[in-house]
Request: fold
Amino acid sequence: MRSDGRPWQVLLVGAGGIGAPAALALAHASLSPTVPRFEIVCADDDVVERSNLHRQILFSEADVGRDKLAALSAALLEIAPRLAVRGHRGRLLPAVALELARGADVVVDATDNFASRFLAADAALLTGRPVVHAASVRWNATVLASSAVGRPCYRCLFEDIPDGPAPDCATAGVIGPVCGVAGALAADLTLKILRSDASAFGHVFTYDGRRDRLRRVSVSPRPSCALCGDASARSIVEVEARRYAGPACEALA
Amino acid sequence: MIDAERFVRQILVEGIGEAGQRAIGASSAAVAGGHLANQVAELYARAAGFGAITPADGPLEPGVPVEWVADPSARAALAGARAVARAIAASALAREGGPCL
Reply:
């Protein structure tokens, strides 16, 4: 619980392949009396499609065509009836990113494209919120958390939106349980952040499903980082929509 | 006949393809059980299209130190997901004579 007595607010951006296992793990964790009290605010604008079902394990055939927020809330209610889950119907877009991040205590980036991922990173740092980034494509998952002040942050590692078309799950595919690994790691980092456990930060997890190999590698702050680097290097001081216009990569979550 | 619409995102993955999806459908995943890890594994195994799901020998293990992943529910979800990733790799990639590296 926060000092004002309210539960912590976890902003889960994306109710898809990574959002589902992350939410599942968080919901089960919320049943433990030793876990800080939290609520989930989930942002998504999608409906469940059949091609989602191989990885979005909280949904079934009966949910096809249903709003993902409604389906996710119903599934979480089954697991943890007392966990409050609220929905924000819409994508994380530049116009709302700062407001959404500001309302949260921790941001969980479970989005499916680079533009949203960099937007989540920028909005979280500019509002002073810790953020957990989780991504997967093909057989690989990548997960890292950044503190409220970064150092390191997502841009220390990945700098900027890649030029040209990037692989996503719609074009390159993704193995369902590889998303599960990403979601489980994201849930644990989220819970560490709620416990003020600084060991959440400063590492990147990588998972290769072909070899079932999970690694954790240290990440150093980058003084020249445009988002969290030295004062002279910081060029990202506000959310400018054009920065996230990048290559269109509108894969389904 | 494989359900191409449902498994399209998995079939697209390098190393799976339609033949890999058929191999998954012809395989069984030994993951079921009462622990949360096994329940998560069963969800992923059903979602991936395994032909049969049989009981695991016991609780599935996440295979990481608690310093890396601490929360019991997160560890269980990790264990369940990894078990099915292994099962998919074993059944779909085995066609090529071992994991494709």
